[in-house]
Records
---
Amino acid sequence: MATYFRRRSSIHLPITLSVSLMALNVTLMVCWIVLLAQRAKWTALTIGVLAFTLILAGLSVWLVLTLKEIALNNRQANFVDSVTHELKSPIAALQLYLETLRMRQLTETQRDEFHGIMATELKRLDQLINQLLEVGRLDALGENEEPVVLELEPLLRQMAESVCAHRGLNARDVFQFRATPLAISARRIVLELILSNLLDNAVKYGGSPAEVIVDAYPVGSRRLKIRISNNGAGVPLEDRKKIFRIFYRGGSELERRQKGTGLGLYIVHTLVKKMRGRVTLQDRDDGAAGCTFVIELPGRVELQRPQPSPQPESQLQEASR
C-alpha cells in the first residue's frame, strides 16, 4: 500500500501539467488582448480577460490542492510503513519467545526474563493501539468528565515517572523541574494525554543520555506556560509547523532510526487547541542543542494553601514564657 501511495503521489506530473496549462492560458490571453485591442472591441476584451483570469486562478487553486493531497498521501505512506513496523516488531518478539518457551527447557530465571520481555512487548503493542484509538475519539475525549483543579508540578512529575518507567530510565536522571507552584482547571484525561506525549517526545528525541528541563510559570491573570526542553538534535525550521500535522514525520520512514507513528504531536496540537491554548516549537533560550515545546493554556487558578490554625491563648502565654 505504501508503495502505491508513493507512486501515485509523484509531484512531477501535476506541476508540469499545471505550469503548461498556465503558460498556454497566459499566451492565449495576451493574443486575445492584442487582437481585440487592435479592433477596439472593448466589451469582448473585458469579458475575455476576466474569463482567462478566472481560468488562471482555477488552475492555481487546483495545483495547490493537488500538492496538499500529495503531501497527505506521502504522510499516509510513511504512517503505513511506521504502523506496520510497530505492529510487527512486538508480535514477532512474542512469537519468538513463546516458541522458545514451548520447545526448550529453561531455568526459572530464564523463564522470568522471557516473561518480563513479553510483558514489555505487550505493553508496547497496547500503547500503540490506544494511540490509534485516541486519534479517532479526540473530539469526544473528556467530554463526560468535569474539569477539576489540578496542581501542575505533581502532575508533571507523575507523567515523567510514567514515561521513564516505560523506557527503563530513572526520572531523576532525565528530568529537571523548575516549575512555579501552579494549579489549572482542566479535564484530567486531556491534560495527562498532552503532557505524556510531550514528555515522551522530549525523552525519545533527546541526547544520549537524554536531559529534559521542564519550566512552568504564570502568564497574565488566568493563563500559564509550560516549557519542555531537551538536548537532542532539534527540529529543522522548515519542519516546525509541519510536525503538528497528522501522520507527519520528517524524512523517510525506511531511513528513520526513531520509532513512532507521527500521531503524538497531532494529538497534542488538537487537544491544546480544544482547550483554547496554543503549542509551538522553538530553539532553546540558552542556545544549547535541542529544542523547546511551549504550551500556553488558560484556566490557571490560585493555589489555596492551608492557613496555620491559631493557637489557643494559653499556649501562646506558655510559649512567651
---
Amino acid sequence: MKDIKRRVELYSLYDRSGMEEHLAKMAEKGWLLEKIGAYLWTYRRIEPKQLTFSVCYFPKASQFDPEPSEAQETFYDFCRHTGWVLAASNAQLQVFYNEGQDPVPIDTDPVQEVSTVHRAMKRSFLPGQLLLLVVVLFYGWMFFSDLQKDPIGTLSNPADLFLFLCLVLLLVMTATETGTYFRWHRKAVKAAEQGEFYRTKGRQKLQMVCLALIFAGLVWYLLSLFASGSRMMRVLTILLFLIYVPGISLLVNGIKGYLKKQGTSAGVNRAVTFGGSVAIALLLIFSVTSLALYGSSHGLLREDNTVTYEYQGRVYTLQRDPAPLTLEDLLDGDFSRYTLRWQGSRSPLLGQYSANQWPIGPVELFPEMFYLDYEVILVKVPALRGLCREAKLHERDGWSGRNPVWQGYSYAPTDPTPWGAEEAYQWIPDGGADPIEDNHQYLLFYPDRVVEISLQWKQPPTKAQMAIVGEKLGRGKP
C-alpha cells in the first residue's frame, strides 16, 4: 500500500474556500497534504480524521526565498500557539490544519484578509495572467496573419490548428480566471465592510475541461504527424517532447532548488534562474537540431521510399513516393531515373497535398527532360470551398512584383470539360497571347477539391491526358 499520493490540482490561487474544503475531504479519506506545487500536490497517508484547514497568504514571500523570512517564522509561531500546524507552503500560499473542534480562525479581520489576498494576487497571480494574455494575443495575431496570407496552408496544418485551439482555450481560461477574481474581490470588499468573509469561487471544472481539450488536441496532432509527416518531423517532435520540454523544466527547477538549499538570496536566485533558463533553452535547441541534422546527414532519417542507381562511379539517390499521378501515367518513356516526392498535411477542415517529379543525374542521360508538379486541396468542409477557390485564383496576384518573368500573366478561363471539372483556368499572358511554352499550368475546380497542375514539356496536354488528370486527381482519395 502506497503511503504517498500525487494529484494534479487545478485550484485558482485565490480559491481559499475550494482548497480548504477539498483538503478536509482528503483528510477524511486518510490523506494529508505534505507538499504543494503549481499543479502537482503531494499527500501523505494518515488515519482518516476530520481536520480543519486554513489557506493563508504571505504577500512578500517568493518561490526563490531560501528559507522562511523572520516575519514568516513569527507568523508560523503564532499559528502553532493557536493549534494551527503548517501542512505545506509554496511561495505566498500557506496551508495550515487544525485537529481541534471549531478552532479559532487564523484570519479574524475580514478587511485585513481581503487586503492580504489582493496584495498576494497583485504580486504573482495578476501579473502572470497579464503575461499569459499578452502571449496569447501575440500568437493569436501571428495565427490570423498567417491565415490571411495563406488560408489553405494554415487550415490544413495540424500544428496551426492545434496552436489555435490552445490559444482559444488559454484565452478562455485567462479571461475567466481574471474576471472571476475581480468579481470576487469586488463582492468580498463589500462583505468585509459588513464584517463578513465572502466565499471564494474558482473555476476548477472549466480548467479541467480546457486542459482535457488541449490534451486531446495534442494527441490528435501527434497522431496526424505520425500518420502523414516526414520522418524528420516525427523525430524532431519526439526530441521536442522527450528532451526539450522536460529538459527545460527539470534543469531550471534544479537550478532554483539548488540555490535555495545553498541559502542564496531571492534576488540572485531569480536572476541566475532566469539567465540559466535562457541558456538552457538555447543549448537544448542546439542539441535537438544537431541530433536531427546528424541523423539526416548519416542517413538515419532517410525515408523508406528511396532507390539508388550508379552512373560512372557515382551513386544517385531517388525518392519514389507513391503518388496518385505520375509522368508514367501521362507519357511514354523511361522515368526510372526520376525522383518523385509526395507530401501533404491534413486537418479536419482541409487537406493539402503536393507532388513533384523531375530527373536526377547527368544531363546526357536525359535527351528530353520532363517535369510534373501538382497540388491537390481536399475540401472537407463545404463551407470552405469558396474560400479555397478565391485563395487559389488570387494566389499569384502579387507575383509580377516578386518575379518579373510572370509580369503580364494571369489565370484565364478555359474549357473544363476535358478535365471533368466544374471550372478550369489556364495560366497565360494577358490579352490572349500564346500560352507559356514548355510549362502548361492549369487550375481545376472539382466538387470537393482544387487541383493546380504544371505540365512542363513542349506539347500541350491532349484530351486523353486531361482525362487522366481528372480521373487521378479530381476523384478518389489523394
---
Amino acid sequence: MKKILTAISVSLLLSNFINAQSDEDALRYSQLMYGSSGRGLGAGSAFGALGGDYSSLVINPAGVSIFQNNQFSISPSFLSIKSNSLFDSNSSEEHKYNFNASGFGIVWVKQLDEKNSGKWRNLNFAFGGNRIAGFHNNVYYTGFNPSSSLAEKFVESVNSSGGITTNEISNAYPFDAGLAYETALLQTFSNDTTQYWALTEGGGVKQEQTYTTRGGMTEYAFTMGANYNDKLYIGGSLGFVDINYRYSSGYTETDINDSIDYFKSFTLDQSQSTNGTGINVKFGLIARLNDYIRLGGSVHSPSFLFLSDRYSSSMKTVLDDTLGTYNADSPIGKYDYNLTTPWRLNGSLALTFKKYGFLSFDYEFLDYSEAFFSFNDDNSTDGKSYENNLNQTINNKYGSSYNIRIGGEASLDVIRFRAGYALYGSPFKSGVAQSGFDNKATVYSGGIGIKQDAYFIDFGFGRTKYASFLQPYSLAGVDVPGVKLNTYTNQFTFTIGWKW
C-alpha cells in the first residue's frame, strides 16, 4: 500500500560525490570550430595551406613561416545566438548575445644569413590565443507528456540498486532522488520502506525547461617555424588550453489538468561550473609546388585536459493545499578529473593567383570515440567502474568524422573580398543520432579587408547552423519524447593588425 507523508525534514547530510560526468562532456570539449580572425572567418577558415594569418596557426603551425614581417593583431567578436526548440509540437525561441576577444597574436620574423644557413630563409616565432569553441546559448522548451515523468527516473535509479532506507537516500542521491524524497515527490511503500514510487508516475504533466550555457575554450600557443627556399615551410606549436563552462537550468513539471492526487508541481534547479586547463602539441608543413599550388598537412595531438567541476541542485514540490510546499537543497558537489580528446589530421590544398587572390580547401579527420576520461578516485572500485562504463559509452556512441572548409579571396588593389563555407560532420556512429539532428554544423561566411604596408583591417561574418537532439531523461522500456533543437549563430569579427 502506498502512503503520503504529511511532514518532511528538509535537512541534508553531507555526501560523497556521485559521478556527474557524461559522454556529452567529452563531445563538448572535442568539437572545435575555427575562425578567430576577420580574415580567417570570412574565408571559411580554409588556411591550412596558406598561413600568413594568425588564426591559421591553430590549424597548421607551419603557416607561421609564411610571414615576412613582424606583426601584431587583435580580433574582438560579437555573437548573436538564436535557438529554436520543438517539443510536443510546441515551438519556442530564445536569444543570447556575447562579446569576446576571439583572437590575438604577435609574430616575430628573423631573416637568416644565407652564408650561414644555406637555403633556410627565415626562422619565425609567434605567441597568441585563438578561441576554438564557444558555449553560449539560451534554450527553452515546453510541452505535455502523457506517459512519463522525470521523477520516474529517480525511482528507477533508487529501486534498481536494490532499494535504500529513508535515512540513507539523501546521502546516497543528494542531487536528485534525495531531494525528491525530501520534498515528498518520492514516497515509500507502507510494506517496504526501501522501495519508492513517485507522485507523477505515468506522466500526465506539462514539462518545461529553460537552461543557459556560457563560456568557451581558448588555446594559447607558442609557435615556431622555418622557411626553406620559399618551397617548404615547417612549424610546430605547444598549446595551452583554457576552459570555462557554466550551466544553469530550471526544470518544472505541472499538473495542468488537475488529474494527479496530492500533486500540483515540482521544480528542479541545477547549476554547474567547469574550469580547466590543457596541453597539446601540433606539427605541420606546407609545400609550395609552384607559383600556383600549395599543399599543406598537420597533425594535432590529443589535448590532455585537467578539469574541475562544481555543481549543486535544489528542488521545490508544491502539493495540494492541505499538504503544503516543500524545499530542499543539495550540498556543493566538487570533483576533479582528466579528459583526453581525439587526435586530429588535416590536409589542405590552395590555389594562389599572385596578386589576384586564392582558392583554398581543407579536410580534417578525427575519431570522437578516441576521447576518454580518467578519474582521480584512488583505489575506488565505484569510480573505476563508472570510468570504464563511461568510456565504453563513448566508444559505442561516437565514431570517425570529418570537417571540410572551403574559402576564397579576391584582391582589388588594397581591398580584399572573401567568401567561405564549412561543414563540420556528425560525431555519432551511424544509426545512433536522431535523423537530421545529429550535431552537424554548417557555416556560411564572407568578409572584406584592407591591406596596407604598415597595417591591415579585416571584417568577417559567419552564420552557423547547428542541429542537435536533447533527451531530458531516459527510462527503461519507455519512449521518452525529446527536443529537436536548431541553433543559429551570427558571428561578427573585426581584426586590426600592424606590421613592421
